[in-house]
UniProtKB/TrEMBL annotation:
UniProt xrefs under SMART domains: HTH_ARAC (SM00342)
PROSITE patterns: HTH_ARAC_FAMILY_2
Start and end residues of each HTH araC/xylS-type domain: 223-312
InterPro entries documented for this protein: Class_I_gatase-like, DJ-1/PfpI, Homeodomain-like_sf, HTH_AraC, INH-QAR
Entry protein name: Helix-turn-helix domain-containing protein
Native source species: Kribbella sancticallisti
Keywords for the protein's UniProt record, in alphabetical order: Signal, Transcription, Transcription regulation
Pfam families reported in the protein's UniProt record: DJ-1_PfpI, HTH_18
Keyword Signal attributed: yes
Domain of life: Bacteria
Signal peptide segment: 1-31
Amino acid sequence: MIMSDRIMRTKIVFFLLPKLHLLDLAGPAQAFSTANDLGYGYDLHYVAEVDEIVTAQGVPIRASRDWPELRPADLIVVPGWRSPRLSPRTPIAAAGKQRLRAHHAAGGSVASVCSGADALGAAGLLDGRKYTTHHDLTDELAARYPKANIVRDVLYVVDDRVITSAGIASGIDLALHLIAVERGAEAAARVAREMVVYARRNGDELQESAMLRHRGHLSDLAHRVQDVIDSRYAEQLRLSDLASGAGVSERTLTRIFTTATGLTPLRYQQLLRLERAEHLIGHGATVESAARAVGFEDARMLRRLRARPLAG
């Protein structure tokens, strides 16, 4: 699903705070940058409350104080800063907190990596929601934000357009999830391959994307068939054609695919369709239009799948 020049690109704004961890920033920035290089339409921006941020690793980073104009489809990401202990006061000014609140109130998404969750908490965005953070910080953040619901030992959590991740390399996991939801499973798979990362998820909310969730196996044949389904999930794919393309019988394909992923090829395709349809519905599409967009002839099948989600 390569983006057309006529489609408005998604802005990803990294809000940089003092002593941020390089990988908390570099991981998701690389994922979104790679997605943009592959034609999936992302514009990256780096803003801060000062002109220069010195990272926890001692590398200075120049940033802009001027925020770009944001739409609801855009994302603000707050990378984490030095841990394992939180600072007594969250290093974010009142104006920064208001930026986060206003963007979310306007329908936008906000995300954090590691201790970046502290900034979301200070802005009041964690209250009443589930979230996660680095395991060294869970007790401190749980005490600091008692109205929020900490989820321990998971890679990331999504709750009402507030997306939090565990920290360090899990920022890549978070970015791949968002790319899969917004641009499709094929896009996330291509980015993961370009970055030479192992696309495997675990934890709360099934860690969302079916493509990523069912890629943690070593079957080359299953991966090749998943590549086909990922790129053509909205089409009518016959098992016989998938098997022929893989050079095996239908029975062999079903056995190997199910052993590797836990799903039959058809159930895997349906799960991709369901997740993409849920994303479209969450952004204002009707059930009928979402069903057509993901390849269902009418909305009845989508309604059945939404009522009884597939296992996986």
